[in-house]
Amino acid sequence: FDRRDSALILAHILFAFFALFLGGVAGLLQGLVRGGQITLPAGIGYYQLLTAHGVLMALVFTTYFIIGFLYSGVAKSLGGQLLPVARSLGWIGYALMTVGVAVGTVMILLNKATVLYTFYAPMMASPWYYIALALVVVGSWMSGIGMFIQLRYWKKTNGAKLSPLFAFMSVATMLLWLIATLGVAVEVLFQLIPWSFGWVETINVELSRTLFWYFGHPLVYFWLLPAYICWYIVIPKIIGAKVFSDALARLSFIMFLLFSIPVGFHHQLTEPGISPTWKYIQVVLTFMVVIPSLMTAFSLFATFETHGRSLGAKGLFGWLKKLPWKDVRFFAPFMGMLIFIPAGAGGIVNASNQMNVVIHNTLWVTGHFHLTVATSVALTFFGITYWLIPAITGRVLTPLMHKMGIAQTITWLVGMFFMSGSMHTVGLLGSPRRTAYTTYQDHPDAILWMPYHVVMAIGGTILFIGVIMMIVNIVMLLRAPKGYTEYPLGEVSQYAETTPAIFERWGVWISVVVVLILIAYTVPVTDMISGSGVGSKGFVTW
Ligand code: HAS
Q1: Which UniProt keyword terms apply here (predicted)?
Q2: What is the model's pTM?
């Protein structure tokens, strides 16, 4: 790696883990409060900590890590180093995001932005908090544009050649992010900022939630797709196999681009301000977005099985024995995959209208996203870190680091088993999410929930130990002996079909996604703006 590229990538990765540490402290404390184990000193509020935890973990850790990781793959696969303009855009993006994160965190610490990570109106934060969010979004756009420019240049110099898979996937991920963030940008710029400055007196709550979830669901795929890049391209190389199918991998990313955006209403199924017809349409599209994950599962099983059989594995699951269990680069992401099976099944429960009524706003949902983003995605990101840091800093990944990484992964899994397991269970018993410690005047139901909340706090404490272990591991990676670590990029199997050229026609896919968004949102949003929708007929809309 060019030293200037390494600096840009490392700056993103280290900032991501700094946020993980701060978010971990907030998470530990709020978990202990909710479990009734501690009371907070100095006027610090439960919801304030919950906001800090959600923002730092779900928004800051992920976004910095993803941009750093994607920049590394784009540099590696498109010419070996970044174009000066792409690198400069990366740094401009980093600076804007970091100013935004600093201002936003100060606002949360001052208790002027205690609005949780979804910042739903009519809860109001300081306008500076919303401006900070806008800076983070604009900063991330700069980095996305940097990656697009790098790919464009590569295409120009390489003619009709198929772009490298990593670059294709990175561009699809950043494109998804760009289209998705337009929704939250409109919400922040045209609704939240004017309202919080007092320039307008009222805010259309239903519209603001809709714009948020237009962004909020593709957001979860913005977290997931970089993990899929690792599963599709990096894992085959680490286990000594080939990428099962380039075409299948690209198709699944295109499907994410198409179907992850027009589905936000599945977060709003219980809201009376949207007609059932539009909810139904978006739920159908939600089930469409499950398909690329099923394709991914199929592709991964195919990779593992064909590779295992080529090494002589027998029986239905004999291939499991042929996997490199002692290699943390494999172990951590693989555990992420394994957990994604129940996590994804939980998502399908959520998306099913009748079952959503049971789980909505309960701790089940918190359990769901701690399995998806905080386990499948986070463990994959941790697994990437073990080779990425030494690869860009010219150091070796020592056998001791493999052991420490595996110990960290197991700690994480144990903590999450207790925490997310009890969240799912107590959610089904009706315990609401986003609620500080209360026994509801000793109501028998609430008393029944208490032991689960204590287990959640125990799981959260184990996870905090996992965060500390990860930070220690990073310090050790930075101090490892000088040497070489491979940047593992898999090659496509010789048996795979050739990839159709249409997969690279970005104009076609962007047009289709625009049409789908217009179909899914035009009528309900027009209703919300004009006040002629179901919400205007006497229902409360928040
Ligand atoms: Fe979700 C709520 C539906 C996936 C994150 N989700 C949330 C929230 C978050 C979140 C953060 O429909 C809370 C938002 C808030 O604060 O209110 N989700 C889904 C569906 C999927 C899904 C249908 N979610 C995710 C992912 C996330 C994430 C991924 C983060 C990264 N979710 C919902 C719904 C709600 C929701 C509703 C709203 C609930 C409410 O009412 O509030 C699907 O994409 C899932 C598809 C996944 C699969 C699994 C495929 C399995 C694979 C692994 C293969 C394993 C191998 C290893 C090969 C079908 C690819 C094998 C090894 C062996 C040894 C066997």
Answers
A1: Electron transport, Heme, Iron, Membrane, Metal-binding, Respiratory chain, Transmembrane, Transmembrane helix, Transport
A2: 0.96
